[in-house]
Amino acid sequence: MKKNLNPVEEFFHGIFLLCGLLSVAFVVGITAYLIISGAPAIAQIGFVEFMTGQLWNPNSDQYGILPFILTSVYGTLGAMVVGIPLGILTALYLSKFSGKRSSRLIRSAVELLAGIPSVVYGLVGMIVLVPAIQQIFNLSSGATLLAAIVVLSIMILPYIVNVSATALDAVPKEYEEGSLALGATETETYFKVSIHAARSGIATAIVQGVGRALGEAMAIIMVAGNVANMPGLFESVRFLTTAIVSEMSYASYGSLHRDALFSIGLVLFAFIVLVNIILNLIARREDK
User: Fold this and answer.
1) What pLDDT, on a 0 to 100 scale, did the predictor assign at position 180?
2) I want to staple 205 with a disulfide (CB 3.0 to 4.6 A). Which of 102, 163, 230, 242 is the partner?
3) How far is Cα 93 from Cα 89, in angstroms, rounded to an integer?
């Protein structure tokens, strides 16, 4: 039975509904635009050639993005391997172990990390990290996949820490008190009960971190070398995002080159959607 709302409540109900519909419309619009703009180039080049080709040379109409795909996958996985444990452990400390003063200090630092522009991360990485990697590993250039992984690991930390800490704060105290009453230690309770109860929020944090890592361009283009090589930890590489950023400005309007860059955007968007679906399926499966 539908509740009777007064005019003011009906007005705000309509506003909230409109905002929700606008969010859906934006997603649908972006999806449709990317498909319309990117699919023709894939059809012209050939799906297999486009996705598995190892040579990207617009001058000879060769558009293979396998190096970009593998670089983005390896870079994101490397950043998540570092960022997820560090972020979740930091969130657990802030939520369950830290005092008020240390919690306030660390949370402020994490929020500051989230507010730093991407170009600043790239600038610091280019000036400090890249020369350090070059010197430590005796390389001709420190602009490598390793530098990109380190920068991405730092950039995704605020997203993982903030969302995970909020999820852990929301865990009912009864869960933890029941575990402690059964003889579990605080550490066992927090790792086996609190994190498990907050898994949905932590999964959301991981999705945000993956999205930030896959979608970052400005900082990465400054530290990764921006060379279309097959990925190697100490090789200069090019990500999907940096391929678009570095070439879109001079790609002729209506050319196959420009359309292929839109196709890269479509592939990148498909990766983000796939990651969201997989993590949501995992979270739903654990909820059953």
Assistant:
1) 87
2) 163
3) 6
pLDDT of 67 > 90? The answer is yes
162 and 110 in contact (C-beta within 8 Å)?
yes
4-13, 83-92, 149-158: segment of lowest average pLDDT: 4-13
Q: What is the pLDDT of residues 172-202, one digit of tens each?
A: 889 888 888 888 888 889 888 899 888 888 8
The three-state (H, E, C) secondary structure of 131-169, written as one string: HHHHHHCCCCCCCCHHHHHHHHHHHHHHHHHHHHHHHHH
189 in Cβ contact with 173 (< 8 Å): no
Quick check: 220 and 147 in contact, CB under 8 A? no
User: Cα separations (Å) of 285 from 200, 201, 278, 281, 282?
Assistant: 11, 15, 11, 6, 5
Residue 57 DSSP SS3: strand
> Phi and psi at residue 265, in whole multiples of 5°?
-60, -40
Count other C-beta atoms under 10 Å from residue 142's C-beta.
Answer: 22
- Please tell me the distance from the alpha carbon of residue 252 to that of residue 91, in angstroms, as a whole number: 47
Tell me what pLDDT residue 164 has.
92
Distance between CA atoms of 237 and 53, rounded to whole angstroms?
A: 16
CB count in 10 Å sphere of residue 245: 17
Mean pLDDT along residues 107-134? 91
CB neighbours of 248 closer than 8 A, spacing ≥ 6?
258, 261
Q: Can you tell me the distance from the alpha carbon of 11 to that of 6, in angstroms, rounded to the nearest whole number?
A: 9
Share in percent of the chain as helix, strand, coil (round to 5): 80, 0, 20
φ, ψ dihedrals at 271, nearest 5°: -65, -45
